[in-house]
Amino acid sequence: MSKQIAFIDVETTGISSKNNEIIELGIMLGEYDKNQIIRVVDEYSEFQEPFFSIPKNITNITGITNDMVYGKALDLEKIFSMLQQADSIVAHNVSFDRGFVSKLLPEVVEFDWYCSVRQIKWKEFGFHNGKLQQLLKAHHIDVRYSHRALDDAKNLAWLLNFSNSNLGEEETFISYLMSKNPTKKPMSNRR
Asked: 3-class DSSP state for residue 190?
C-alpha cells in the first residue's frame, strides 16, 4: 500500500528559529511504495520577504537576494494542506526545518517527522559525513542549485531512493529511514 511523504527544506536568514525567518520554503510530496519514491504527487516553492534585510552571508550561500523576496509571502494554507496529506515528513535536519516551519504552523510539530541526517548513520554506509551536498555528489545526483529549498527537497528524495551494500536486500535509504521511529517533538512544543 502506497503512502505519501513530504520532503521539506527551508532557507532562512540565520540558524535560530527564534530570531531568524524563512526566506524560501520548498516541499515535494512524493508517493512511497515498494521501498522507494515512485512519483511526485505535488510540489510547492515560494519566497517570503523577511522583516529585516537578508544578511550578505546568507545571500552568498543561497543566492537569494532582497529583490527576489520583495513582496513575496508563503501560502500557509497550501503548505499545511500538503503536510496534512503526508503520512510522514522528511527533512535533512529536522530540528532546524521543523523549528522554522512550526513557528509558522504550530500544528505541524505533532506530525511524524524523520531526520535523514541523524536517523541515517551515513558513516556506517561508507560516507565521510551526512552533509547533503556531499552525499548528492557521491551518488552522482546532478545538483542544479544547492541551498535552494525545492531543489534540496527533491534532491533529498532522489538520494534516499538509492540503496547501499550495507542495507538489506531491496532496501533503500528511504525504507531504512521509514523503519525508524519518528523524531521526538521539541519539549517546548509538546502538549
From this structure: coil
